[in-house]
Design goal:
This protein is α+β, with helices and mostly antiparallel strands and about 200 residues long. Helices cover about 45% and strands about 15% of the residues.
């Protein structure tokens, strides 16, 4: 193959795939319907969602809890870990009730069609569904217009991200950005301005 004939965006995707490593690609792109996912390979498990966070704990205990490999379940080729046998039983009974939206990726990133990031300890339940964020800054940016951002994220997930290859999708949308794209600096500035305006209004 003559790589000099390929467009620069495709070369960039090849570079990302080469640097990302096979393990991460396998972990984030299972063969089931729940894909891509924010997962890692750990021990004997090829894809552990959210580094083993107990997804049931968000709903039952209202907090982040690390799961224990002793209490594990498989759903759509993804491993879920739980802090207790009771939580595992709840998940096994109705797994879709506890699934993080957007494969556990940062909801704010999905609003830009970018499956990237997602910290298990930064989260919010909205209308009975679990959303993960890539840190407090991302959560605050999403909250600037939660209704609009949620609609954007749901549309991009449905039409573009769900079922895609996470690394290819990410690379594509980091090069060909959505019309409403804002950089991290832009979002941080908007959050700071909103906080200032709120403070001034008090």
């Amino acid at each position: 193959m003559n790589f000099r004939c390929l467009p620069s965006w495709l070369l960039a995707i090849f570079a990302v795939l080469a640097l990302s490593g096979c393990g991460a690609m396998t972990a984030q792109n299972p063969s089931g319907k729940y894909s891509p996912v924010n997962a890692v390979a750990e021990g004997n498990d090829s894809r552990v969602l959210l580094k083993g966070a107990d997804v049931v704990a968000y709903f039952v205990d209202g907090k982040y809890l690390a799961g224990n490999p002793q209490f594990s379940s498989q759903y759509e080729a993804v491993t879920f870990r739980f802090a207790s046998a009771e939580h595992k039983a709840l998940f096994d009974k109705e797994p879709t009730a506890y699934l993080p939206q957007f494969g556990g990726y940062c909801a704010n990133g999905i609003a830009y069609a970018i499956p990237w990031g997602g910290d298990a300890d930064t989260w919010k339940i909205i209308d009975g569904k679990l959303y993960i964020f890539g840190g407090q800054g991302s959560k605050d940016a999403f909250a600037l217009d939660e209704k609009k951002n949620l609609a954007l994220a749901e549309a991009y997930w449905k039409d573009e991200v769900a079922g895609s290859h996470s690394f290819i999708q990410r690379s594509k949308r980091l090069i060909f950005r959505v019309p409403h794209y804002q950089s991290g600096e832009d979002l941080a500035r908007a959050v700071a301005n909103a906080k200032t305006a709120t403070g001034s209004a008090k």
